[in-house]
Design brief:
The protein has 3 domains: 138 residues, Helix Hairpins; 145 residues; 30 residues, no CATH class. It has 9 helices and 8 strands. The radius of gyration is 63 Å and the shape is elongated. A 6-stranded mixed sheet has the order 3-4-5-6-8-7, sandwiched between helices. The protein is α/β, with parallel strands linked by helices.
């Protein structure tokens, strides 16, 4: 499609290749006609100028002849006759020369007109041939599309509703598998079986860079088809919102709806339709554009692969720096925690030592107090005598006295 802007109102509109070629040919024909007309005008002006120049020179020559005739009237008859003959001869030569110039200019104008008519004829023939070729080309393409539509209609009429949708999925899977080993080695392209969120797409395409591990391209595919006999016809617009939701939930970069819905729509029959004005990074394609759509997005992604590698390297560096900072912070926090715990235990030990010192001081004081009491008790013990014990106790005094007498008797007996 080509965009043309109106020179008067400034409004831009689009026109197909055939219309654009026709308008371009009209402009070329018009410009050529203008050039021919301008060339003819210049030739006419040159012819008029040449005639006027010849007339001017002729008038000047006649004036010179008249002057000579007038001068000859004063001379003899012979001189007059010679002057007249000379004037006539010069006049004839001048007129003959001017006639030759006029004939030459006329012939040049005729040749220019013939060349212009020949070019115009050739241009028209070439334009008609081009238009005929464009017409035949579009007629062939239109015929091919009609045959394709007829094939799909006949194909869908033979399938059940479930088989219609599955056949389109199988078609896309088969087309991809034909090129998987050569064009898409190592690419993940499988059915989306994760329905934990309540919905799922049909296929997921993922490709990663084996060097950096960065994702090169990811596409969520949805395939939609329906039988021609379906009472309520669906539209592609009905499935775009759900497809965008699946794309975001499965973390895919692009979303593509492969659709046979709205088969009469010129908008969708154009091939690849960009609907990113409704939902970001989304396209609607016909089945024949399934592989070209992947190739187009993949080529664009490959162009940005180097930037993705550099970005992944920078992210890895950021992760390494972050990990180093995290480890450093962890070490600092651990050291601070252990230092705090050690300080707490040291304080506890000091407190325990202080308490032990206080306790030992109490024990010391108690021991000192006990020693004093023992000293007093010893003093009292040393101060005790039998006299003091029996003083005021006649019974004990009598017993101690008897015991003393018995001891003295035993001592005497042992001596004897």
């Amino acid at each position: 499609m080509n965009t043309i802007k109106c020179p008067k109102c400034g409004e831009a509109f689009q026109i197909d290749e055939a219309g654009y070629a026709a308008i371009l040919q009209q402009v070329r024909d018009e410009e050529f006609k203008k050039a021919v007309a301008e060339n003819k005008r210049l030739c006419d002006e040159s012819k008029v100028a040449a005639v006027q120049l010849a007339e001017g020179e002729l008038k000047a020559e006649l004036a010179r002849v008249k002057a000579q005739l007038k001068a000859a009237e004063d001379g003899n008859a012979t001189a007059k006759k010679l002057a007249v003959e000379e004037a006539i001869r010069a006049e004839r030569e001048t007129v003959s020369e001017k006639e030759k110039q006029i004939v030459e200019l006329t012939e040049r104008l005729a040749r220019a007109n013939s060349e212009a008519e020949l070019k115009l004829s050739n241009a028209k023939t070439e334009s008609e041939n081009k238009l005929l070729g464009v017409k035949e080309k579009y007629e062939l393409e239109l015929k091919g599309k009609d045959e394709q539509i007829a094939y799909y209609k006949d194909f869908k009429s033979k399938l059940s509703t479930k088989m219609i949708g599955e056949s389109l999925e199988q078609y896309c899977l088969t087309e991809f598998n034909k090129l998987r080993a050569t064009a898409f080695p190592g690419v993940f392209f499988e059915k989306d079986n994760d329905a934990r969120s309540g919905s799922k797409g049909d296929f997921i395409y993922r490709e990663t860079d084996p060097e950096s591990g960065a994702e090169i391209l990811s596409i969520m595919f949805e395939m939609k088809n329906e039988a021609d006999t379906t009472a309520t016809k669906h539209h592609n617009e009905d499935f775009l919102k759900e497809l965008d939701k699946d794309r975001q939930e499965k973390k895919c970069e692009f979303a593509v709806l492969v659709s046979l819905l709205e088969p009469e729509s010129d908008y969708y029959n154009a091939g690849i339709v960009d609907v990113s004005y409704r939902y970001p990074k989304m396209f609607v394609v016909r089945p024949q554009c399934f592989i070209p759509m992947i190739t187009l997005l993949r080529n664009a992604a490959m162009g940005a692969l180097q930037y993705k590698r550099e970005l992944a390297l920078l992210e890895q560096r950021d992760i390494d720096i972050t990990n180093f900072e995290s480890k450093l912070e962890g070490f600092k926090e651990g050291f601070a925690r252990h230092y705090r715990l050690a300080g707490d235990k040291f304080k506890t030990a000091i407190d325990e030592i202080d308490r032990s010192i206080l306790h030992l001081q109490k024990i010391k004081d108690a021991l000192l107090g006990s020693e004093n009491n023992l000293r007093l008790a010893n003093n009292k013990l040393e101060d005790i005598t039998i006299k003091k014990l029996v003083r005021g106790n006649p019974t004990m005094a009598a017993r101690f006295k008897a015991a003393a007498q018995e001891g003295a008797a035993e001592e005497r007996n042992s001596t004897c």
